[in-house]
Design brief:
The structure is a homodimer of 212-residue chains. Chain A is an alpha/beta fold and 212 residues long. Chain A folds into 2 domains: 70 residues, Arc Repressor Mutant, subunit A (Orthogonal Bundle); 112 residues, Rossmann fold (3-Layer(aba) Sandwich). In chain A, a hairpin with a 2-residue loop joins β6 and β7. The longest helix of chain A has 19 residues. The radius of gyration of chain A is 21 Å and the shape is globular. Chain A binds a DNA duplex (24 and 24 nucleotides) through α3 and β2.
Chain lengths: 212, 212
DNA sequence: TAGATTGTTAATCGATTAACAATC
DNA sequence: TAGATTGTTAATCGATTAACAATC
């Protein structure tokens, strides 16, 4: 039963399946049952079969799933094969850290870094020199840019976000604490680290309470 | 109807409520209705009332919610008041970036940074010198450490995670791509940046498809 | 063929939305 | 008092789990 639209919750789980299947491949395992995979991942086998069913039929009765094939299919759904071109906007600590990350494996290639601080002008990270923000517009016109990683201070987030949208960039990976997705019409994924840490604080409190 | 256990999904939303209520406070708004808040946040008013109801009664019929009071109560639930002591393990790009972050606002104080690279020994970030890993055990014994931020390479993640658990640290904010929560018995929050980026790739693909 | 395991339907569980009596 | 808005119950929706016929 191949659905037209894969449910959002399933999409959220795909990268994790992709990683586990990659690990299996490294262990030279070329087939796996939903039961065995469920044990490894801490899910139910029902959920795994239901998830895979939502975007196609990848298994074989009495056999299980072919690891390599299943992994490739998930990669296709997530569009990991096609290279996307990425720039980092905001070359502070976090921006530099992300610029050093190896996102090539998941299909992202870093082609530019931008900042407003003149002292960073020309400073190179992985052979890519930091450019000034006023050079961004022409850069986007001359180079196809798929996605901008936004690592600037909160105060500038909305302005720069709207500016990026205006240049024609259609996806933003947003590390500022501003909910840009509700304000822009392009594709935005928020990473709110502070919110994540707050939920950890809650869980930690509960752990301590249980021990007391 | 105050529930014994606040549902996980509600907890995930609390930091966002906390942030919006903080913004309202800065605008000197001291009361808000579920209807008005729902407009701002892009939720339904029903959900907001249902969420708040799950951990108490904070509103007043015909009036709405007192912004300052509601925010404080959410802060208490998340345990943001009590200061937690935090160390960063792995002083690479990401570790340094996080060490520079201001997490004091949400109740976390950085008290130590650790790495295995001797060249970083003594290098200071925000007045905190990087220490070598072999000094970690005695450091934990002499200082109460609540949480470790784990920003080390994937290969070392499991070993160091188990080591941290053994020292008595009870919470890990895990930035490695390893699912430590399934392997350790302490409180672990995973931040899998690569997985997050993969779901952005999926959404971006769909956006392009819609336009074609 | 017999055993194993999928794909899929049905049952359950939980979360969101709608509705409205209670009450400020 | 009249209007507004909560707290809460009921209805709906969606996601997870259970079960099993189909089939390799």
């Amino acid at each position: 039963m191949k659905l037209d639209k894969v449910p959002e919750v399933v999409i959220q789980r795909l990268p994790r399946y992709y990683r586990y299947l990659g690990e299996l491949l490294e262990e030279k395992t070329n087939r796996i049952s939903s039961m065995e995979l469920s044990r490894r991942m801490g899910l139910t086998s029902s959920q795994i079969r239901q998830d895979f069913c939502s975007f196609g039929e990848f298994g074989l009765q009495g056999y299980g799933y072919n690891v390599k094939y299943l992994r490739e299919e998930i990669g296709k759904i997530l569009d990991l094969d096609r290279m996307k071109r990425m720039i980092v906007v905001g070359a502070g600590n976090l921006g530099q850290a992300l610029a050093n990350y190896q996102f090539d494996k998941v299909g992202f290639e870093l082609i530019g870094i931008f900042d407003i601080n003149p002292r960073l002008n020309g400073f190179a990270i992985r052979n890519i020199k930091v450019m000034m923000m006023d050079a961004l517009e022409s850069f986007v016109q001359e180079n196809q840019v798929d996605i901008a990683v936004l690592t600037i201070p909160e105060e500038a987030a909305l302005d720069v976000g709207m500016y990026l949208e205006k240049t024609g960039i259609q996806a933003i990976w947003n590390f500022t604490p501003v909910d840009l997705n509700t304000m822009l019409h392009i594709c935005v994924k928020n990473v709110h680290l502070d919110e994540n840490l707050m939920t950890l604080a809650y869980e930690y409190k509960n752990l301590l309470k249980k021990q007391a």
